[in-house]
Amino acid sequence: MSAVIGFLEQLGSRATGSIHRLGFASRFLLLTLRNSGMCFRRFSLVVREIYFAGVLSLIIILVSGLFVGMVLGLQGYDTLVRYGSSSALGVLVALSLVRELGPVVAGLLFASRAGSAITAEIGLMKATEQLAAMEMMAVDPIARVIAPRFWAGVISMPLLAAMFSAMGVFGGYLVGVRLIGVDEGSFWSQMQAAVDFHEDILNGVIKSVVFGVAVTWIAVFEGYDAPPTAEGVSGATTRTVVTSSLAILALDFMLTAFMFRGD
Amino acid sequence: MMKRKALDLWVGVFVAIGLGALLFLALKVGNLASFSAAETYLVKANFDNIGGLKKRAPVKSAGVVVGRVEDIVFDTEAYEATVAFSIDKRYEFPRDTSAKILTSGLLGEQYVGLTAGGDAAKLKSGDKLKITQSAVVLENLISQFLFNKAADGNKDNK
Predict the structure, then answer these.
(1) According to the model, what pLDDT value does residue B128 have?
(2) Among residues A111, A175, A177, A256, which one has the fewest Cβ atoms lying within 10 Å of its Cβ?
(3) Where are the domains of chain B?
(4) Checking DSSP bridges between strand B98-103 and strand B132-133, what pairing results, if any?
(5) What is the count of structural domains for chain A?
(6) Is residue A10 part of a domain?
(7) Residue at A144 is within a domain
């Protein structure tokens, strides 16, 4: 009997604990947004963070985009050629990149490359009491540390996703047209006929903005909320990558269900 | 600590590449270049059966895309489908232009084909096309073929 009660108690405390954390995270996001004024007045703060979140992620995004595009080119050709429609290779590569793979894979890479770094940095700042020191000097750590990182992530993510897609299309072109020898004219013209600016490209950009908000929100919150120990920071960094990857995939499903219902 | 100027430069390069990639997607991958915000006029047509025609399907004349399907509704009085499509202002068509629903290739998407007539008056916005031809439904075609076959078979037996 006591084992059952113990189990129920544990279940209850887990449920309230996660709801409590969600509420804390939401209030934290509101607080970040409310204190964002300063980082737009002193935009150099955001520029510095864009360097760390965006510019340093450039290489991994470009290289992965190129390879994903090249693999799509090879695999897509392999399937399409059975139906004699290898000229639709451009459509396949461009649509799958612009609609799904660009935002999602770039988001996953961004979460593990930049999100984890943000969490570790903020967590260590907290562990070494730099945040507390700022408060002592009447500097709001949310306005000075959290908000610039948040906005840098939100700005960088759509740009990285666009680069990923563009690089992927280029990779598909390299493999499809240069290596395999699909007709260049039909590769581009069928792609342009099938990819719609509003339906496909803008929706992809909207997705990447949503992912950018989700990943950086999770990253800065986990960092700020991390227990101020070495173990706590390492746990928070892991949680950032896991939670934001799951959030990206779940959000992607929901956004896709809203955006592409087939009519 | 990195110098401020070098940092600004790198971020500038990053943003420029990102915007360049977006521009590449919009112009080279997407259809923004071919569809400038040209002025259009709206024309309607009733079809017995639209098959698999969808919104935003192309409207072509002589194989050239001249417009897009804007809306498809079911007309509850005539029990037909009313298709509204916008045509680029640059292209004028005679009043007695006819519309067909065609398929590009064997498995391709369906589109509206316009064939110009001989009327001197031009189509205006809000006009309705009188002569239309429905989509070919494969099942009907097959059943017609089978009926004909069966009829021929009966004749031969007699």
Answers:
(1) 87
(2) A256
(3) 1-34, 40-142
(4) parallel
(5) 1
(6) no
(7) yes
